[in-house]
Amino acid sequence: MRLDAIFTFVILIAQSKETSLKQKQEKEQKIRYDNYRVFKIKYESLQQRQLLLELTKQYHSFRLWNENNNELHLMVKPDALPQFERQLKRANASADNFISNVQHLIDLEHEATTKSSPIFGWTRYNNLAEIENWLDEILSAYPNVTESFVIGESYEGRKIRGVRISYKSGNPGVFIESNIHAREWITSATATWLINELLSSGDDLVRGLTESHDWYIVPVLNVDGFVYSHQKDRLWRKTRQPSNISSCIGADPNRNYDAHWLENGGASTNPCAEDYAGPHAFSEPEIKAMSEYVCGIRDKLNVMLAFHSYGQLLLSPYGHTKFEFPYNYDDLMQVAKAFGDAIEGLPYGAVYKYGSAAGILYPASGATNDWAFSQDIKISYTIEFRDTGNFGFVLPPAYILPNAEEALVGIIALLAEAKKLGYLQLKYDP
Ligand code: ARG
Ligand code: ZN
């Protein structure tokens, strides 16, 4: 062998050692969910619910994935299975195991990401740096109709960015808040796809939609949590601001708005809980920034849509009580029905339910859509995207496009119906 060949060979071995070391470190750094299971648990009484939710106080062994008014989805650590069985018996409830190894889903998702093209797209999930680089490309590709905006800074000092799309003055405004919950990756994938589609589609319906509204889209609101969910814990939900009273980190940003904050058991006072409301309303810098930004332009906004996953739901106010309804509840339901019907008209087979958040889910106080409604943005929803619990938060990237198309078609119908009912009239003199 020639000397330079040997030299290259040695370098190659050294490099491959280095990359495998890197991969190993990366693996070691990430929290793993080997053989963690996720169960759907049906219950009838609030007492049963209480018993089941008690488990989540052991937040290392049990984590709440989802909830609606007769069902909980709970992730269980393998060595906590016997305890889980015992508590199920005590609560006289039955459970259905729908994910048998969470890590397996995370690995498949990771594989899809590393195998697919490095170019930004919607066949894989993109991280924050990729999303921001792509945003810059979009801004320079469409300089006349787009504008970058920054709503503020996160706890860890990251900028929270958005894009405004406006083709003319005098349009009603639609605000899209996305990825307030870190692990709900389908939301920023959908929000970025929407931005791209609004700007580049040649379809008449989409062109009309784009050009007759002003769009304010924040693809990732909870930037710190989102980065953490990519680098460390795929299932992180909250912000990353430490607590003064606990070693648990972060608050639930969607319980942190000053809208019936912490009322009616709609959030937790326990810093370790997934729905910890924070020490006070607007304690989380991201939510304070969001509220100030939205307040500053509230006259320009007619619609607020907060993107979440999962459950396939369109949720109106209120979240803090199921015994009261907004004055325009019937209209909100009519608009929601238009959204749901449009999605059912697509060939993908997804079905969305709709109702008030507290009515069809559970009490949740301090959420975006309730707060926006209180700021006179009268068409205000939380959208829970796919799925209904086969994959939950770890929705395979193959579903990004169907989900995004559903969102677009749903939003087209939603805005048309809202317009029909008179909700898109300007609140200011253009
Ligand atoms: N999954 C969302 C959450 O738990 C739904 C919140 C719905 N409630 C509401 N008030 N918007 O935060
Ligand atoms: Zn969410």
UniProtKB/TrEMBL annotation:
Family: Belongs to the peptidase M14 family.
Cofactor(s) needed: Zn(2+)
PANTHER family the record matches: PEPTIDASE M14 CARBOXYPEPTIDASE A DOMAIN-CONTAINING PROTEIN-RELATED, PROTEASE FAMILY M14 CARBOXYPEPTIDASE A,B
Active-site residue list: 384 (proton donor/acceptor)
InterPro entries: CARBOXYPEPT_ZN_1, M14A-like_propep, M14A_act_pep, Peptidase_M14
UniProt organism field: Drosophila grimshawi (Hawaiian fruit fly)
Domain Peptidase M14: 124-418
Protein name, per record: GH10071
Pfam families reported in the protein's UniProt record: Peptidase_M14, Propep_M14
Superkingdom per UniProt: Eukaryota
Function summary: Involved in the digestion of the blood meal.
Keyword Thylakoid (UniProt): no
One of the GO biological process terms: proteolysis
